[in-house]
Amino acid sequence: MQAYMSQCIELAKRGSAFVAPNPMVGCIVVYNEKVVSEGHHEFFGGPHAEVVAINSLTKDIDPRQSELYVNLEPCAHHGKTPPCADLIIEKGFKKVVIGSLDPNPEVAGKGADKLRAAGIEVVINILQKECEHLNRKFYFFHTNKLPYICLKWAETKDGFIGRHIADLYSGKQISGEESKEFVHQLRAEHMALMIGARTANLDNPKLTVRHVKGRDPLKLIVSRNNTVESSLRLLKEGQTWIFNTLSAEEVNGLRFVKLNRHTFLEEMLEYLHKQGVQSVLVEGGSQLAQSLIDHGYWNECYRICSPLEWKKGVPAPEIKARETEIIELGSDKVLHYLNR
Ligand SMILES: [Zn+2]
């Protein structure tokens, strides 16, 4: 059962840059110990993985003799699409194996119960940890009512942060095609990108997804004193929200969100949750990342360490956690941290 579930997880990952705020889901159908069809949730609002797998079954396969594997509990409620549990019952599958239950307490277990009530054998929590890890942003958001915060910065060997990733990877210094792709993949996998006002004004980044396929995330700027320059490139397209303490208004896709100076970070996170922003990739600067770290408001961190030495600059944030993984990207090392 584990091998089949691993296969579901791998399939689910194909949707990583396209499905948020929906979870990543993969599904396979097994008949006579052979995988006879598969499906994954491809894009937000698209058909669920179970529907894709069931619809691609050939006529010679009898669902009543088949087992269905899926990494997340099939839905039992009417959302954008009819409930998958109903379709599975209608086809009369013999057995359904579920990786992890829905994180939403009002829904958790309902899909599994519905299947059981219809006489289907249901097995739950197969590779549960792996399945929950796969959809950690989705789980964290629904369980904690807060956005999932991922930090990312690049630093030199002597501990200085590039004002922006582009600085460190531009020009002759580092070839970095792999690092660029890595960062843009990260961008595509988050619903929003966040930077501080200083970084925005100094670097004038576009904050779009360019080197990989994926959607452009919402852009967020933290500017307590509302000092964001109106000529910035990132304000030209898409949606941008500016968190500040002075003004609340919305003009042409640019939204000013006014927060209290003393409870700024808390209010900002609450606001993001209320607006349904499930995950945020924080791309600097150092001060913003450090304040999130100091308050414990981070879930994950990618620290890109280059072999360069700058001898001066802005000190990189300090993180007192132990890396869970080291990823080699050309001459760079990416230290990955999870806040547990
Ligand atoms: Zn569904």
Beta strand count? 17
Fraction of residues in β-strands: 25-35%
Number of helices: 11
Instruction: Quote the distance from N terminus to C terminus.
Output: 28 Å
How do the SSEs run, as a string of H and E? HEEHEHEHEHHEEHHEHEEEEHEHEEEE
Main sheet: strands, sense, barrel? 10 strands, mixed
Characterization of the model:
By secondary structure, the protein is α/β, with parallel strands linked by helices. The protein has two domains: 2-139, Cytidine Deaminase, domain 2, CATH 3.40.140.10; 145-338, Dihydrofolate Reductase, subunit A. Helix content is 28%, strand content 25%. The protein has eleven helices and 17 strands. It has helices at 2-13, 49-55, 84-91, 110-117, 128-134, 136-144, 165-169, 177-188, 197-203, 264-274, 286-294; strands spanning 26-31, 34-40, 66-72, 95-100, 121-123, 148-155, 160-161, 192-196, 218-222, 240-244, 249-251, 254-258, 279-282, 300-305, 314-315, 325-329, 332-338. The strands form three sheets. Strands 11-12-10-9-8-13-6-14-17-16 form a ten-stranded mixed β-sheet. A five-stranded mixed β-sheet has the order 2-1-3-4-5, sandwiched between helices. A two-stranded antiparallel ribbon has the order 7-15. Helix 9 links the parallel strand 8 (192-196) and strand 9 (218-222). Helix 3 packs parallel to helix 4. The longest helix is centred in the first third of the chain and has 12 residues, at 2-13. It is elongated and about 65 Å long. Mean pLDDT is 92; it is low at 168-175. Zinc ion is lined by residues 48, 50, 74-75, 84.
